[in-house]
Structures are given as structure tokens and as C-alpha cells.
Amino acid sequence: MTAADSTSGAPLPMTRSGRRGRWIALAAALVVVASACTPAALPPTTTTTTVADRPASEVSMEWWATGDSLFAGYGKHPAAPAHLDGIENFAVQGHTLVQVDLLGEPHPTVRSQIERMIGLYGAPEHMVVHAGAADLLGRGLWGFDHSSEELTDEIASLDEWLRGLGIDVWWTTIAPFTLWSVSGLGGQAELRLWLNDWMRTHLGDRLLDCEEALIGFGGVFADGQYLLEDDGIHVNDWGARRHARCISERLADAGRDLPLR
Hints:
Radius of gyration: 17 Å
CATH topology: Rossmann fold
CATH superfamily: SGNH hydrolase
Number of domains: 1
Number of helices: 10
Order of helices and strands: HHEHEEEHEHHEHHEHH
CATH class: Alpha Beta
CATH architecture: 3-Layer(aba) Sandwich
Oligomer: single chain
């Protein structure tokens, strides 16, 4: 898989190319074998896991988390925000950055969820966003063909809008997945790495760089011990706590206080 194959937009710059090249080549060689034991694909879903529609008096306006299932959690397993003290979690499983049609219907986006929450409660002081994992899953599973440029344009646009509302906005790196996951077998590893590099350049100190908290040997795919065995994308309880600890430490380094519970 080449950089040009990863996206229909501009070719991806091949930073850290030696390490990535070896592992992407290994991924290609193992696809046939791994696909035989890959669990059933998990499609994006509109199922909400938020605390929405509570009385406004019960909602903290200090720290919010939002994004996709890497913040919403999956099944019985909580995600990082569940381990962070004093944060309202408005992330929703399956919400994408880029608006796409799924089975003929517009699929919900991270932006639409944020708009809904702000419409209900107003703008919080601080917000932490994890988004993009659902887009990568959709590319691997459903064949979503939005380009790298569409993804980065939406990150930049969403960030600009939220900061224009006076919100102190923080983003996290897109969490890694395993080689044998839908996203891994769907060839999305290089795009995930490239998007994280783009955010490092364009978001600077407002990016909570927690890729290393979940990454495995070689720096491309996740360490499977931190993820659910049945899908290789979502964190288990151990992974959620590691992710949360990293987020808390990165915020503390920047003078923000969001400790672990």
C-alpha cells in the first residue's frame, strides 16, 4: 500500500517512512491469513451513549469530552473520559468527522452532536475531542471515499468554530487499532499516522499526543492487550485507563487540571 492508495486526496507525506514501510508491508503480507480469523465487522451506529437531555442545572459547563466511540466507549467497556474527574462525556459511538451517506441516509457527525449539546446547554469552558476513528472504520468497512483533505478541513473548521465560541479546545491523536481489525485490514493505518502528524503540525500544543499510550512494537498498530479482542479497535478497561492517564498528564503539562478519578 502506498501513500497515494491511502486517500483520494493529495499523496501522504511519508514521515517516519522506514518504520512505517516495514510494518505496512507486513500488513499487506498478512491480510489474507488474518482475514480468515477476523471477527464480524462492526458498522458505525447512531446509538447514543451520552448524558444528553438532562436538566441544565445538572450539567457541568467546565470540561466536556466529545467525538466517537474511542471516547464514548463500546459495549460494557468505558472509554478514557469515564476515568477523568469532572468531565461531561458527550461522545457518541460511530459519529464521523466528514458527513457521509450510509445506506441512503445522512450519517451523524461529531459536529452535529456538538451543535446539539451546545444548543441544549450553551458552550463549555473546555473541550477535549477524539474524532476520526469512525471515518477510518467507514473507509475500511463501507468504502467511504472522502479524502485526507476533507478530513483535515473538517478538523480545522470545527476547531475554528469552537474556539470562536470562546472554548478552550483540545484534540487527541487518533487512537491506533490492530492489524487484524476492520480498519487495519482495510488499509487505514497509514492514513491514521498521517492525520496524527498533520494535527501535530497544525494544532501544536493543543494536541494531546497519546498515540504512544496504546501503540505496539513498530509504532504503527496498537498493542492488542489494550483493546477488545473481538474487534481490535475499541479499548478495554486497561486501555481506557492508560488513555485517560495520558490525557490527564498532557493537560497537566499545559497547566490544565483534569485528574484521574
